[in-house]
Each structure stands twice: as structure tokens, then as C-alpha cells.
């Protein structure tokens, strides 16, 4: 009997831990893939020359500067890799009288529909109508056609990107899908033309469409504040030493390096991260983490480095409030920081990192932070917080006077 009760308690604990692990604010995930844009023409350019709107949006999200397609840098292999969470060649078959190609492993739509019991309308794929050459999800046992997404194929007339955008906006507003994949192909077509001006024009258009898509989401009463959007590429393009922008497909850095920009309520804001190395195959597992479904046949990982922040703390306020409101940097913070090194007293940690005690922005708390804090008082040197844990400061206006209950809120 005691063994039985103990087993029940363990099972309950496991369920409780699972519920905690999935207690994110995200209720909708939208993946947008911009085909074949070189990183140097997207968010790899800090001036935002060709992606000005996305560059502006980075203040609301997190950019992974070390995201790659390190396997096969062509569309036919890379796009399905983002669905399956792994690279694996497509399989030829005949389906409904058509010669088609399909994924050998389940896709994140199938994982989501199985794991979350979603109807087809809540898992969507928006792409131009490529007829029988449209790649299909899997026939994997336990998944397959009964769990495929709802396909939305705007007619391929004129501007493909605009047609996909219009269709995506309609579907998002009408169906509020839980998981969506939106494919914008025109930048790759333009790159292959060898016409630089055409290529740049399509990047500028894609930039404006993604920003408009985010505006649409934030204007929707159901999706606003509850949606994570991840923007990426299937591959880059040759760097100038390996043939230039008009082609792709080898293992040069230009082909492998891609954009990965993410916005959402559970992600960091106004941050660039560059480690650990990320893959486009990691998107499926990350979506599953946010929404609470498993991706058992994916080889990708959850991009944990994207999660978190902003946090309520003031860089340099080492003693974290200590009876004074509003929080401020005072001489007592130097004493507190010295005592921190003497006794390792801790007031406010983020993931084991003493956030407010990083004075020089190197995301470490070491002896030089004491020197930097002293220099702040002596000569007015800047205090720089860790960019990986952006502080939410100033605190919201609606907080009551005096220290709010629960301050500091660092986790």
C-alpha cells in the first residue's frame, strides 16, 4: 500500500513538473521562412540597410547571430528540415494520383495536432500553389494525413510574397491557428536572377511584410501578447569568395549562416545571442516547448538561450532595493558588492547569475565590477547591464508607491 501511494505521489509530481515546464504565456506560434536571404543582407547588418523594419523590431525580440543550416543548403532539403526538426531526404511516392514527395518523419504540425488534439484549422501552412510539386508532411505511423495541417495555397499570379501575405493575414484573423508556417519565396527567386537591385527589392518587400504580419498579430484581440513569431531562412547565399549572391548550395559560410529572429512573450527582448550554435532544425522542438507538445523524432534542441527577460532590476543596484524606493545606485552598493565577494551573499539571481552586480556588461560578476562601480561614483563612468538579461526599467507606472510586494522580481 505504501509503495502504491509512493507511486501515485511520484506520478503526480511528474505531472506537476510537466505543467510547470509548459506554463508559458505563448498560445500561438508563427514561423515565417524567407527563402534564401544572405545574413549580410538581413540582420547581420546592424545598420538595417535592407531590413530596416525588422532591425527596428529587434528591440522587441531576440536575434540569434549564430544560427545555421550546416547540412544541405538548398530549399528542397532545408524547408522540410524546419518542419521535421531534422534533416532527412524527402521520399518520392504517388498520392491521390499525383507524383509527390513527402517527409520521412513527422512534422511539427503533426506533432502539434497529435499532442494538443488540434483540428486541421488550428495548424496551417501558407505557401504559393506549386501544384503536385508541393512537398507534403509525413505518412509516419501514428501521425500522417489525419494530422496534416490545413493547406492554404494562394494562386501563383504575379507577386508570390504578396499573395502569401494576404492569405496568411486572412487565415490568422479568421482561424487563429495555434501553429502556422508561412513561406515567402521571392527573395530566393530574385537572387538567382543575378540582378542585385531585384534581389534587394525583394528583401525590402519581405522585411515590410514580416513587420506588417507582426502588426496584424498584435492588433488581434486573441493573439496579441500571446504569440511567438520566429523568422528564419532555409539557407543563405554564396559569399563573395565562393560565387556571390546569385547562387547557393555549398558549405561556404554565406550559404550556411542564416537569420533567426524571434519575438514573443516568453523570449528575451532587445538582445543578440551568439551561443550555443543554433540550427534551423531547432525550431520544431522550440515550438513544442512553448506550446506543450513533444517532438520525439526531431534531432533538434530547444533554443533555451532565447527564453527569459526582461527582468525587474536596476544594473548597479547591487543591494537590490534595501529599503530605498525607487531603486537606485548608491554608495552602499559598493559595500554590498565587496561583501558579496567576501561571503557570496546573494539577493537576486537570474539563472545563477547575479544580475544587478554586473556593472560593465560582460555578463560576469568578478572583481572588476567593484572597480567599475567605484569609477561610476568617481568619474561618472557608465553602468552597463548584461545584454542577455535585459532589465525592465523603469518599473511600470501602475506600481504603487514604495517597494511593491515581491520586489525584486528577477525570475
Protein architecture, described:
With 411 residues, the chain is of the alpha/beta class. The protein has 2 domains: 25-306, 3-Layer(aba) Sandwich (Alkaline Phosphatase, subunit A); 310-411, no CATH class. 32% of the residues lie in helices and 14% in strands. It is built from 11 helices and 14 strands. The strands form 3 sheets. The protein has an 8-stranded mixed β-sheet, sandwiched between helices. A hairpin with a 2-residue loop joins strand 4 and strand 5 (98-103). Helix 5 (160-175) runs parallel beside helix 7 (196-219) and helix 6 (186-193) runs antiparallel to helix 7. The longest helix has 24 residues, at 196-219. The relative contact order is 0.15. Mean pLDDT is 88; it is low at 4-22 and 395-401.
| Overall number of domains | 2
* Overall morphology: globular
pLDDT < 50 stretches: 4-22, 395-401
How many strands, which pairing sense, and closed or not: the largest β-sheet? 8 strands, mixed
Order of H and E elements: HEHEEHEEHEEEHEHHEHEEEEHHH
> What fraction, in percent, of the residue positions are helical?
25-40%
Helix-strand blueprint:
Blueprint: H1 2-21, E1 28-34, H2 52-57, E2 61-64, E3 67-68, H3 75-84, E4 91-95, E5 98-103, H4 108-116, E6 123-126, E7 136-138, E8 150-152, H5 160-175, E9 179-184, H6 186-193, H7 196-219, E10 227-232, H8 253-256, E11 257-258, E12 260-263, E13 271-273, E14 278-279, H9 283-291, H10 332-343, H11 367-379
Parallel strand pairs: 1-9, 1-10, 2-13, 3-14, 5-7, 6-8, 6-9
Antiparallel strand pairs: 2-12, 3-11, 4-5, 10-12
Helix pairs in contact: 4-9, 5-7, 6-7, 10-11
